[in-house]
Amino acid sequence: MSLLHKLSKDLDGLAESNAFISLEGEEHAITYGELWDQVNLQARGIASALAGDGPVLLLFDRSVGFVITFLACQMAGRTSIPMFFPRTARHFERLYAILEDAGATSVLCEEGHADRIYSKLINHGFAGQVVAATDLATQTEVSLPGMAPNATAFLQYTSGSTGKPKGVKVSQENLWHNQTLLQQTFATTSDSVIVTWLPFYHDMGLIGNLMHSLYLGATCVVLSPAEVIQKPLRWLEAIEKYGGTHSGGPNFIYDHCVKAIPVDAASGLDLRTWQVAYNGSEPVQAATLQAFASHFASAGFRPEALHTCYGLAEHTLIVSGGKPTHDVAIGISSGAICPGVSVAFYEAATQTFHKKMGEICLASPSVTEGYWGQNAEEDFVTQDGVRYLRTGDLGQQVGDQLYITGRLKEMVIIQGKNFYPYDLERALADQVDEISLNGVVFTYVEDAGEQPLVVAEISRQVLASEAYLPIVQQIEAYLVAELGLPPYDVLFVKPRHLPRTSSGKLQRVKVRQGYLEGTLDFVYQHRDSISGETTIAHHLTAFLDDPQAEHLEAYLLALLADTLRLKRDELDAFGDINLYELGISSLTGVALVNRINQDLELNLEATHLLETGTLPAVRDRILTLQWLNASTNDGEEIVL
User: Fold this and answer.
1) Which helix (H) or strand (E) holds 71?
2) Cβ atoms within 10 A of the Cβ of 580, count?
3) pTM of the model
4) Is the C-alpha dihedral spanning 302, 258, 203, 119 positive or negative?
5) Lowest-pLDDT range, 3-12, 227-236, 462-471, 591-600?
6) Which of 466, 454, 462, 471 is closest to 506 using CA atoms?
7) Domain coordinates of the chain in residue numbers?
8) Per-residue pLDDT averaged across 249-273, rounded?
9) Domain 533-630: what homologous superfamily?
10) Which of 199, 234, 239, 335 is most buried, with most CB under 10 Å away?
11) What sign does the CA torsion over 258, 262, 267, 273 have?
């Protein structure tokens, strides 16, 4: 069975019912009968007039036109590639890379955009055709082959949070099976009203909303993502107006609603029809769910409507979902594992499986074949004859509940401890008013002994005032208290300048790579603003030429400031400095003492510095050792 077969079968009873109500621009609706007719007309045109037989790139700005062409491609037997509508030179660069990867030579778009898109793509070497989909619509009778269950219905290109764009091959069978999981998980029916603002080229918006409403024979209300993010009240007003029963999005939209919608506006809403408010696509925060339920309680929103979920394009979409449970030690769950989905936990280092914890691996009919044009074997492991997809996500199972604990490639290991970036990012956003959630990246620099790296988007007010240092100090204070060491570096970028995926997820690995390669576009870098080797060398030379206490103090302060990535004026007076309060850890302390021994040709032991914790004690020991080295002794090494 496929969506097209089901639509054809159910059409008589649905012909006059609204399939979609679009609020993208002026409100307009399309019935199931009108939708089916337009899909058929376009499918004939695609089958008869579109060159080649390879994948077709779909570039649409509005959801309803996209859905018609998306289904028409399947009816005509052509694999499609849903993609964002391009607006910038950078967008076209990425689109051309996808065209090359997929071997696509045809692009379908909305009326009035073909010439512009073609003129941009030919600048990158594109030699195919760009056609307005409505221009292909024809009454001509042609054979419409449709698609076999194992045929690739579409390629879900995803940049992911950790890598380059890859085309996930989603088959008709994958799509159908995942629809059954969605229905079971969220108890949807033909009477459901789905309200969506999620991008239709992304798996949650496409499969979980647009396609799911067609699978149910329900009505889907569609809003513009940009308009909802600009004014989230529009989303909730649409749920009220149309009696929305199922709607949701990533964690950030719930936070955004609480912050952007005043209490009086929230109280004026009626959200009693909202049965399932799902939260997925990024780490779910218990505090967010609590705050949203409390803020909109006066609007009739029920806390039990809050559902969490977990999924990924490589599993078509959903893996787990439902009403969450909370474990004090682990956090909030991503709901129950969907029926028929087998979950195993793998440890790559030992190539062994564990019962309830590790890298999440999946087996079900929703598991896709792999990536277009790539060998998929490295993405799978086998246990007891069952082939499991490795997700790259870390998790834990308690009962039937699945807890997502991190992303394997993003996990930060500092001094032997594992840290998940988004936990620290959220804490930083809570601690520092000028930093927003989903606007800060916590990662690390390997060459600096795995010291933390923080890159944050900064508000325009701070950009105007250039008051960066107080914010850096707050970040340093938090990391010292939490991790026991300060950041290796802190960078600030303009709003919306952190790399993100098409669904808004931060690309942490890309941020770290950009830092190491020097390609990040930043407005302030703390490491570059502080004294470094030149200042250390100056004070070292002064002390070696004239070994007085004041020169040694200046050298130690410069070395300490550089080690802790601080400005000299951020340090207290020499006699008041407590190394542990500044964030000296055992590793940092050893590195500091090794540097002192190298510069001064001494054999000072790190244990002394770590035991005393004060610079005056270190200074006095160095001066004593210098005096002893200058005095006559029996030639044996003296260790103090």
Assistant:
1) helix 63-75
2) 13
3) 0.72
4) positive
5) 591-600
6) 454
7) 412-529, 533-630
8) 93
9) ACP-like (1.10.1200.10)
10) 335
11) negative
